[in-house]
Amino acid sequence: MRALFVGLCTLDVITLVDHVPAPNEKLTARTQTVAAGGPATGAAATFAHLGGEAVLLTAFGGHPLAGAIDADLAALGVDVINLTADSPEPPAVSTILVTAATGDRAVASTNAASGASVSPPGDLSVLVGDADVVLVDAHHPALAVPAARLARAAGVPTLLDAGSWRPATPTLLPYVDVAVCSADFHPPGTTTPAEALAFLHDAGVRWTAVTRGASPILRPDGQIPVPAVTPVVDTLGAGDVLHGALAHHLATHITTRLTPPSFDAALAFAATVASRTCGSFGTREWMRA
User: Fold this and answer.
1) Closest by CA position to 140, among listed 124, 158, 119, 160
2) By the 8 A CB rule, do 206 and 187 touch?
3) Is 159 helix (H, G, I), strand (E, B) or coil?
4) Cα–Cα distance between 201 and 83 in angstroms, integer?
5) 289 residues of the chain, pLDDT tens digit each
6) I want to staple 151 with a disulfide (CB 3.0 to 4.6 A). Which of 16, 91, 158, 175 is the partner?
7) What share of the chain is helix, strand, coil (3-state, %, to 5)?
């Protein structure tokens, strides 16, 4: 199976600390790691790890720092299309502090600002047509919207990773088949996950869910349990992994139209994989276990 992932790619510098430093405080980290990050990127890495063919359509420049992203994703078997490889601009760098005692993370990043003017490749329709699933994260709307539109026209399921409400989200929703959102996803006029699900339904998205960390995944007609993890070491990237695992399950098992039971089964599988990541530090160690 094959999936196209369209969206953000960053260089994540992940540091394990005893506590988030106070103003002007210096502290010594327990450990540190570096990996390619971003919602679409984390999902693509997961899809490839689970045995699928993952194609990542993104933009992260041709600065020397981009080499670290290329090396990480090549080792995972992700086929990367970097549309700004000829640019001297550096990739977005996410600085991430993970608190050792809780696994909570604090993140600072420029996201996709440096790649805002990127244009779709000429073979986008081929990339979409060759995919069993197309995932978009709305960070590169000039890529995400055309990809989602082409997927809808070709009958390829489209999955939206909605970590938060973004400017491109309203334009994407008419072409989205499955939307799995975080509890931080708040469409205009909504404050609760239930209201967000209702908003998506009214926007025409048929299959929806809201993840809430360790709490059950919320569906319009029920909940999906999330396996417990003890101890929780690091929650970074768990949502990205969930989307990659969901895309893999959909590409592998859904040969006809989705049904409520089959969607719930896909979410349960994705939650199990995502929970596994929380027991180790960083976004790659769980793949080596």
Assistant:
1) 119
2) no
3) strand
4) 34
5) 999 999 999 999 999 999 999 999 999 999 999 999 999 999 999 999 999 999 999 999 999 999 999 999 999 999 999 999 999 999 999 999 999 999 888 888 887 654 457 999 999 999 999 999 999 999 999 999 999 999 999 999 999 999 999 989 999 999 999 999 999 999 999 999 999 999 999 999 999 999 999 999 999 999 999 999 999 999 999 999 999 999 999 999 876 678 999 999 999 999 999 999 999 999 999 998 7
6) 158
7) 35, 25, 40
What is the helix (H) or strand (E) element at residue 152, kind and residue range?
Answer: helix 141-154
The whole-angstrom distance between residue 34's C-alpha and the CA centroid of its chain comes to 17
Q: How many CB atoms lie within 10 A of CB 127?
A: 20
Domains of the chain, CATH where assigned: 2-288 (3.40.1190.20)
Token pair listed for 64:
């020397």
